Every structure is written in C-alpha cells, then in structure tokens.
Amino acid sequence: MKELKFSIRVLSYSFIVFSLFLLCSACTQTTESIDPVEGVWERSVRYWVLDDDTIYADPTPGLQHKIYYDGYVMWTADPAADSSEWYGYGTYQLNNNTLVEKLSTMSLPLRGLVGSDDEWLLTVEYDENFYKQEMPRAFRDTIYLYVEEWKKLN
C-alpha cells in the first residue's frame, strides 16, 4: 500500500513537472516569421530590359533609400537636377516573390508620374543582404521591365 501511494505521488509530481516544462517551452517559442525585406536599403543599380536584353543601364542612378518596417515603407531620393523632391510613404505586403507597396503620401513629381495609381506591384528576388525588384513600365507604346537592385545597410 505504501508503494502504491509512493508511485501515485511520484507520478503526480512527474506530471506537474512535465506540464510546467511544456508550458515554459510554449512561452519561449515565437510564432512571428522574419520579414526578409525589413530594414534599410540603398539602391545600387537600375536598368531597363526589353525581350530579356538590357537596353539601358543608368551609370549614375542617384542615391535612393528605402526603409521597410512593421508593414510600412518609406523611400526617398536625392533631389533631381531641377531640385524637385522624390519620396513616398505607405504600407507594404510581401507574399512569396510579390511585393505590393501602397503609398499614402508621395511627392508632387511622383504623383504627376503615376497619377491616381498609388499601388506598386513588384516582382522581387531577395536574400539576406540583397533584393531586386522588377516592374513593367510603358514608354512610347512599348512595355519595358524596369529593374532596381538594392543592398541592405543594416
């Protein structure tokens, strides 16, 4: 009888210890996934592609930065030669290789370029310190693929 009480007590304590272990393990696990584009990025190159051939690569693309954080995006560029400012701010969503930026605020020159279209649908390739975005752009009745490559700063 003593052995039975001892066995039940050991099983009870073992169950409590095991339950506490599971509870602590569940508390330390994170369910958040890492966002691969989150951070500060600097554009390193931009170019235009037609029929899989690079037709123009900008030798001096100008300094441009993007910051992705917690679902928000902000980007800015050095002023153009005419001193016009170029910037945008809004939200973003990344789904596999598709990045959607929806700008809620943008500079007047950008607004003039895109009109009422405030959503940018980009095809992206990325790794830890690099990403490339591609977007179709029309120019004189021809659809080009506009490509920008970015390096991570942080």
Structure, described:
The chain has helices spanning 2-28, 108-114; strands spanning 39-50, 53-57, 64-69, 72-77, 86-95, 98-106, 119-126, 130-139, 142-152. The protein folds into two domains: 1-29; 39-152, Lipocalin (Beta Barrel). The radius of gyration is 26 Å and the shape is globular. With 154 residues, it is α+β, with helices and mostly antiparallel strands. Helix content is 22%, strand content 50%. It has an eight-stranded antiparallel β-barrel. It contains two helices and nine strands. The relative contact order is 0.16. The longest helix has 27 residues, at 2-28.
Q: What is the class of the largest domain in the CATH system?
A: Mainly Beta
- Specify the biggest β-sheet: 8 strands, antiparallel, barrel
What is the string of SSEs from the N terminus onward? Answer: HEEEEEEHEEE
**The number of domains:** 2
Distance between the termini: 67 Å
Spatial strand arrangement across the major sheet = 1-3-4-5-6-7-8-9
